[in-house]
Amino acid sequence: MKPEDVPRSDPGRDAQTWHPDPSRPSWRVPVGAVDAHCHVFGPQRRFPFSPTRKYTPQDAGVEALNALHRHMGIERRVIVQASCHGTDNAAMLDALRGQPNASRGVAVVDPGITDAEIDSMHEAGVRGVRFNFLKRLVDPGPLAPRAELAARVAERGWHVVVYFEAADLPELTSFLEGLPCPVVVDHMGRPDTSQGVDSLGFTAFRALMENERFWVKVGCPERLSRNGPPYDDVTPFAATLVADTPDRVLWGTDWPHPNMASHLPDDGLLLDQVPIIAPSTEARQKLMVDNPLRLYWS
Ligand code: 0GY
């Protein structure tokens, strides 16, 4: 069991989870590159965390995120609501409004959200809702209200982002395939990286990806690796997905790597994984620019 998989009963404040001095990427990222999975947290005095959170991150505000992106040469970002802020999207929305053209968001909302609230989020740059099925983070709750919510946001051209463990895919497959909008899978569907890419679980995930409504984020090796940096055990999974579906892959930093205790990921090293998993200029242009622009900015 990886450290982050141990259920936590104490949501006491975590130590800082991001590298204070990330290395500079050793390659030149394409113009217009997008970080399609990052978060902002707090500051807690302005944007309090959810009372039902399972972990308490350090404040990780938008200024620190902006500084990281400047350092890495990344021009746009998709800010994803994480469980520690529950369904209060205020910190994420505030970050979107600070750089409206360069930002898009993915919200976590109550199924009872009003149309006016959805419209207001759309105005701020939100283009998706996230369904989190990780039992160590949330009580996933029933599926039917989520299907109804998906139908409502699909009318506005939004998509659904799903976060699940590979072991839960069989029971979620028919729900996911029935959603009336694009479905973006976080962190490669969290494969068991101790088993190879030919394992039954990853084979089932690749079969799901044959459906053209499905997209996948191929970053986050730091969370999936059993060996740690440079994450060689995760590389084949990401490279396989980029080769399978070059037009439906996205990449993100996962900054500030919340709820991680194993090590402080170096974001420069994470970005250096991109030329390994996407070896051609064309593949990198799709992964970091064309695909996220199509999904979030068109
Ligand atoms: C991530 C991963 C995690 C946390 C969340 O919503 C969240 O709290 O996403 C995790 O603990 O695996 O996407 O950053």
Give an overview of the whole structure:
The chain is α/β, with parallel strands linked by helices. It has one domain: Metal-dependent hydrolases (TIM Barrel, Alpha-Beta Barrel). The chain is 33% helix and 12% strand. The protein has eleven helices and eight strands. Strands 1-2-3-4-5-6-7-8 form an eight-stranded parallel beta sheet, sandwiched between helices. Helix 5 runs parallel beside helix 6. The radius of gyration is 18 Å and the shape is globular. The N and C termini lie far apart (41 Å). The mean pLDDT is 95. Keywords: Hydrolase. One of its GO terms (molecular function) is 2-pyrone-4,6-dicarboxylate lactonase activity.
Summarize the structure.
Helix content is 33%, strand content 12%. With 298 residues, it is an alpha/beta fold.
Radius of gyration using CA atoms only: 18 Å
Helix count? 11
What is the terminal separation in angstroms? 41 Å
Q: Indicate how many domains the architecture comprises.
A: 1
The class by helix and strand makeup works out as: alpha/beta
Low-confidence stretches: none
Q: Could you name the CATH homologous superfamily?
A: Metal-dependent hydrolases
